[in-house]
Design brief:
Distance between the termini: 8 Å
CATH class: Mainly Alpha
Radius of gyration: 17 Å
Number of domains: 1
Strand content: under 5%
Helix content: over 70%
CATH architecture: Up-down Bundle
CATH superfamily: MFS general substrate transporter like domains
Shape: globular
Number of helices: 6
Largest sheet: none
Order of helices and strands: HHHHHH
Length: 203
Amino acid sequence: MSNVKFLPQLSILGFAFFLSGAAGLIYQIAWQRILFSAFGTDLVSISVIVSAFMLGLGIGAIAGGRIVDRYPGKALVLFTLSEAGIGVFGFFSPAVLTWASDTFFKQSVFVIGLVNFLLVLVPTSLMGASLPVLMVHLSQSWNNVGRSTGWLYSINTLGAMVGALVTSFILLNYIGLNAVIYIAACINIMVALTVYLLLRQKP
């Protein structure tokens, strides 16, 4: 495939993964704020969220890589399903995390932390799966695994940085916490629909 024909696909994928990274950090900051009300301390809530994100990203990367290796032709479908799954969880996450905190509030800090940790592990695993899935799809067109991996990772990291800055200094100062989470969920759904509709036809 020529570089000219590949450029629109590259731009769409790049922008989609940029937004996906931004949504991920919006979730991380917002969910930590929700857990703060359950634990009453930033130290425990931050530890739960960061641990869940790190483990989830690792598990998702391994699982996503193995699945997409078996079905490389379905890479974009797997990516859209992952993004849609994150978005669906995002919409329900304020209610789910609040329910978990209210249900187990009489339990020890360890039990509350474990329950919330397992809940957050679900969407973070889907986040982790998105990189290897897109990497396989992109490498089929780019024919360079190293460049496709580095490009995707850098774009996603840049999006995460922007998401963290915008959430901390703008969104949380002007709108409610739940609304911030709903924005992130809408971003994931939009990314899933855009990628599926515009790139579902294999070049």
